[in-house]
Amino acid sequence: MPRSVNHAASKKRRKKILKAARGYFGARKNVLTVAKNAVERAMRYAYEHRKLKKRAFRTLWIARINAGARMHGVSYSKLMHQLKQNDIELNRKVLADLAMNHPATFAELVKQVQ
Length: 114
Description:
This protein is mainly α. It contains 5 helices and no strands. 74% of the residues lie in helices and 0% in strands. The longest helix is centred in the middle third of the chain and has 39 residues. It is rod-shaped, with a radius of gyration of 26 Å.
């Protein structure tokens, strides 16, 4: 009995990898084994950095809130503590946006909690 191979499926698998490797430099874009390694690594980094992006943004927001708070003579930690004590539930993303783009509103907020 002749050996049966599912050419359609294996071609689809190869095409999927090479399509994902489009735009890569050198052999990474057209040699299957090299492209496979490059795509695998890229996917691993993409997954990992989706998680790290959340950390990076939180750090950025904290830095912006701290800068805004210190302009009004209060530290970040004291401001956050006072906000919690006064039951003002604004997240860091909103507070950072206020500190950067609406300094007058942020100043009112700081004055209100002190």
